[in-house]
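User: Reviewer 2 asked us to show a designed sequence for the structure in our supplementary figure. I'm pasting the structure tokens here. Could you produce the per-position amino acids so we can include them in the response letter?
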């Protein structure tokens, strides 16, 4: 069953919100969306030879954009995330469901000649292949880029690995936890003497998947001009270091490790969560103009001219005393009261919410960020939709496949006289 956003027929609607962090009536603009145009990658065929997180996230992004994604899984167990963590009543894990919508699944044993032969046939008619085997495995199986491009010059081949295809660590297995530990990220977010803290989601995996999808899209544009494919290579460690941006750049410039500030920011003050009378609130004051408005909002106009706090640099130098004074004022009122006050003064702010709370937030509801797909085993399943939206077309969502669900149908296509590339994703 295909599930898509409904076309919006009213340009504006209003919703009365009773959330503690949305105290007044808001008018929310909505846009018209086509329900007939398919995604911009409609007609593109992707062979997904990935498992775990980074690779499946990459191919899911391509599937969300309209590509036909055929996921190759090992018979018997399939993608390892099918068995990770809490499973639903139907035996499908949240991990797998979150990373594998808009795909077909076929079970192929690549250790058998018949499985490899089928994969080679699929590869000859594919536009993109994404794989995250450990370096050296695809060469041993004969499904590396140089081998497959011999029969498909336009093939775009993406390799995702922990440490990359070169360097002394290239053959090591690389998981998100290892990257967070080695990148400096954990220490940058932990104070000396305290236990290091892992980010609560696989940030290195997600970033690598995103960078890989972007590289694939760039290669597709180049292919339009040259007719030739290319090999895109992305490493988890490189991706995380790139995303750490100003932290790594500052260290390169100064030779010093960034100071651990919990929710704070090394270059902006205040820019963190702060304690109110009853709860926490996130406040961002990225420039001196907003700082002056913030001082008025807290009824402390004298802070704007205080030599210790007048500029962002001086606020950094006097971070501890300033934050103590700010929290002293904030503790006089509730979080909801301060949110209303800060919004009136146009101060960027927001409440500290749980995952359950943000999923029920009026902003998420208004944007239809949660979508429902009809899973063949589980029935209706709610998922977070794609953040990539196109005003002139709909986003189609198909449920994550069961293991080997499409094996027969896809393999039958290989025996048909028409080329595989003329066949679009089947329900």
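Assistant: Here is a per-position design you can include in the supplement:
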């Amino acid at each position: 069953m295909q599930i898509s956003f409904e076309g919006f027929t009213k340009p504006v609607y209003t919703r009365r919100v009773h959330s503690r962090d949305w105290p007044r009536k808001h008018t929310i603009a909505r846009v018209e969306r086509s329900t007939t145009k398919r995604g911009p990658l409609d007609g593109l065929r992707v062979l997904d030879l990935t498992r775990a997180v980074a690779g499946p996230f990459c191919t899911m992004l391509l599937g969300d954009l309209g590509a036909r994604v055929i996921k190759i899984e090992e018979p018997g167990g399939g993608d390892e995330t099918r068995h990770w963590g809490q499973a639903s009543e139907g035996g499908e894990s949240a991990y797998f469901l979150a990373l594998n919508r808009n795909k077909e699944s076929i079970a192929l044993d690549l250790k058998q000649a018949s499985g490899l032969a089928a994969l080679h046939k699929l590869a000859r008619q594919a536009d993109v292949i994404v794989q995250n085997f450990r370096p050296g495995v695809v060469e041993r199986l004969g499904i590396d880029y140089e081998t497959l491009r011999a029969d498909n010059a336009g093939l775009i081949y993406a390799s995702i690995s922990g440490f990359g295809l070169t360097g002394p660590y290239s053959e090591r297995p690389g998981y998100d936890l290892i990257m967070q530990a080695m990148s400096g990220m954990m220490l940058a977010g932990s104070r000396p003497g305290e236990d290091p803290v892992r980010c609560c989601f696989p940030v290195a995996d997600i970033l690598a998947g995103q960078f890989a999808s972007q590289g694939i899209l760039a290669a597709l544009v180049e292919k339009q001009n040259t007719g030739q494919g290319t090999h895109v290579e992305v490493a988890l460690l490189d991706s995380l270091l790139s995303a750490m941006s100003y932290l790594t750049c500052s260290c390169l410039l100064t030779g010093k490790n960034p100071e651990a500030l919990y929710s704070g920011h090394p270059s902006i003050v205040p820019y963190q969560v702060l304690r109110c009378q009853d709860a926490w609130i996130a406040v961002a004051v990225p420039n001196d103009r907003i700082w002056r408005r913030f001082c008025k909002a807290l009824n402390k106009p004298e802070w704007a001219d205080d030599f210790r706090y007048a500029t962002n640099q001086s606020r950094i130098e006097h971070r501890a005393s300033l934050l103590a004074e700010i929290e002293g004022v904030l503790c006089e009122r509730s979080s909801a009261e301060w949110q209303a006050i800060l919004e009136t003064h146009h101060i960027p702010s927001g409440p500290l919410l749980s995952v359950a709370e943000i999923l029920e937030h009026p902003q998420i509801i208004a944007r239809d960020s949660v979508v429902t797909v009809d899973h063949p085993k589980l029935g209706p399943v709610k998922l977070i939709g794609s953040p990539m939206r196109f005003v002139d077309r709909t986003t189609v969502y198909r449920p994550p496949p069961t293991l080997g669900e499409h094996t027969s149908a896809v393999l039958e296509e290989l025996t048909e006289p028409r080329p595989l590339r003329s066949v679009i994703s089947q329900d």
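For the response letter, you might also mention the following. The CA atoms of residues 11 and 31 lie 6 Å apart. The radius of gyration is 25 Å.
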